[in-house]
UniProtKB/TrEMBL annotation:
Example GO BP: tRNA modification
PANTHER family in the record: QUEUOSINE 5'-PHOSPHATE N-GLYCOSYLASE_HYDROLASE, QUEUOSINE 5'-PHOSPHATE N-GLYCOSYLASE_HYDROLASE-RELATED
Keyword Membrane part of the UniProt annotation: no
InterPro entries tied to this protein: Q_salvage
Domain of life: Eukaryota
The keyword Hydrolase belongs to this UniProt entry's keyword annotation: yes
Protein name: Queuosine 5'-phosphate N-glycosylase/hydrolase
MF annotations from Gene Ontology: hydrolase activity
Species of provenance: Ambispora leptoticha
Signal peptide: none
Keywords: Hydrolase
Length: 373
């Protein structure tokens, strides 16, 4: 039975991403969501979240992330999420979380090697440590001040594999730096201030002004929206600045509608959702993934995987919310902290589950080269 028959709380979504996800699910052929699967996944996640609370404080627990909530950190977060895409390696033939080829793209920083998303953070921090103001928009907008060759050196690998989609990253850097300089006083902080503490307004500002964040596709004659990196950018601001005050008397990370942000549709979270039985794939899709077929950006299979993942996490969120209401007084972690649930924290948990799994998950992740994730 699919969730078309589930009587979970029906809320008219305010986020266009959620509206798109629901539409995709209702017309999906190769990806399905089952009622039993949603309940199973929600119950597993609920119990695990009580054991290991996920909250905004965990973001700063990694020392590669900014530890000081100031305007410099805003521009660091913007640059990281501008470039936060396509870190999987063609060299990783075994789709086992935690396994990496010794020759994949690697950045060495402060006596440690980093791969994946963390290689991006390390490369940027390494440049800053050398006195290169790589996170300053008017600096990286200018070819005279920062050449393409110098950008390539900043993201130089310690191995034979270069960072994927390097030319696309350089183009994104130039374009975004120019837009911030010409429209927003040279800082992403201006965008946040203009949003007036609304995550959805900030989302609109981002996707309307920065083309590389405009993560959209055409599905059955309709434009569907995912906005993965734009929403991660907002979530990272929330993580870093939550409850922090600024000279304007407002917290940069204070958003009255932060719970409207959806999960971030990438390639690892859908894989984990399938493993948790929240998603089911057709034999055709499974065979496609087993063959490591590179999907096209905007293809129907990719759209169904991403859209159904967003909708599945929304249904999981609703079910856990109902459990919290029904277990009044028991909705605390083992450390007696209040348990908070939104799609951002659920995504964090599911991504961590997939990345920390000691064995292969029961379906391979889909492969795609895209600037959107």
């Amino acid at each position: 039975m699919t969730t078309k028959n589930i009587c979970l709380e029906e809320i008219i979504p305010g986020n266009p991403v959620l509206e798109s996800a629901k539409f995709i699910f209702e017309h999906s052929k190769d990806v399905q969501i089952t009622k039993e699967g949603i309940y199973n996944a929600a119950n597993i996640i609920f119990e695990k979240m009580k054991q290991k609370e996920y909250s905004v404080k965990h973001w700063k627990m990694n020392d590669l992330h900014p530890q000081k909530a100031d305007e410099a950190a805003i521009n660091w977060i913007f640059l990281v999420d501008l470039l936060n895409f396509s870190f999987w390696s063609d060299l990783d033939k075994e789709d086992i979380p935690g396994y990496t080829s010794p020759d994949r793209y690697t950045v060495f920083y402060n006596n440690r090697s980093y791969t994946g998303y963390w290689s991006l953070c390390a490369a940027i921090n390494r440049a800053l440590q050398k006195g290169i103001p790589i996170t300053t928009p008017d600096f990286y907008a200018s070819k005279e001040r920062l050449s393409d060759l110098e950008i390539k050196q900043i993201f130089k690998s310690e191995t034979s594999e270069d960072i994927p989609l390097l030319e696309e990253r350089i183009e994104s850097i130039r374009q975004a730096g120019k837009i911030l300089t010409e429209r927003f006083n040279g800082t992403f902080a201006t965008c946040i201030q203009q949003a007036n503490q609304s995550s959805l307004k900030l989302l609109t500002i981002i996707v309307e002004n920065f083309p590389s964040f405009r993560d959209e596709a055409s599905f059955l004659g309709r434009t569907v929206k995912f906005y993965k990196r734009a929403q991660i950018l907002i979530a990272d601001i929330w993580y870093c600045y939550n409850n922090q005050n600024t000279i304007f008397g407002l917290g940069y990370g204070t958003f009255h509608d932060i719970d409207e942000i959806t999960m971030f549709a990438d390639y690892r979270v859908p894989q984990a959702l399938h493993h948790l039985q929240a998603l089911s794939y057709s034999p055709f899709l499974k065979a496609t993934l087993d063959n490591y077929t590179l999907l096209e950006n905007g293809s129907q299979l990719e759209i169904e995987i991403r859209g159904c993942s967003i909708w599945a996490v929304e249904l999981i969120r609703r079910h856990i919310t109902q459990k919290l209401l029904s277990e009044d007084g028991k909705n605390e972690t083992e450390d007696n902290e209040p348990l908070r649930v939104n799609a951002i924290l659920l995504d964090y948990y599911i991504w961590d589950f997939a990345s920390s799994s000691k064995t292969a998950l029961n379906v391979k992740a889909h492969r795609i080269r895209s600037i959107f994730y």
